[in-house]
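Notebook, student rotation project (T.W.).
Task set for the rotation: take a protein with a known small-molecule partner, predict the structure of the complex, and write up what can be learned from the model alone. Partner molecule chosen: zinc ion. Sequence and SMILES entered below by T.W., checked by me.
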Amino acid sequence: MNRNNKGQFMAGENHPNWKGGFDAKKYRDEYYSKPENKERQKIAGKKRRKEKPKEITKYRREHTLATREKMYTSITKRSYPKKNKCELCGKEKRLIYHHWDDSQLKKGNFIKGLWLCNRCHQLSEGLDENKNLGKMYLKLKSSI
Ligand SMILES: [Zn+2]
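Predicted structure of the complex:
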């Protein structure tokens, strides 16, 4: 065996000290279980929030979703409408992601959803609960 192929030969599984490969999750858990690393992470987070608040807001808007039960992170939503326009009424407002299919949420990634203003979001929630609500409302109005 010459010097050049020794490295390759003794690498990875062939090496006597091989312990089954690098376990990223285990490494990460061990890393964050140490208080000094947790603290370091906290400081880095604070710094990032101070330096790039817009980027962080954008990322959160596109990749996190809070429901009554749980906070979902690292998910992919439909792209945010241009000019902050509500997909239902078209008004330019602060938009909320309206979702209705929780089974998709559990799968993790792509979620059906609409970007709606607060008013349209509440309306949609009501209609999702009771599809006849719209008809009932119009009927009620015409009866008065
Ligand atoms: Zn709207």
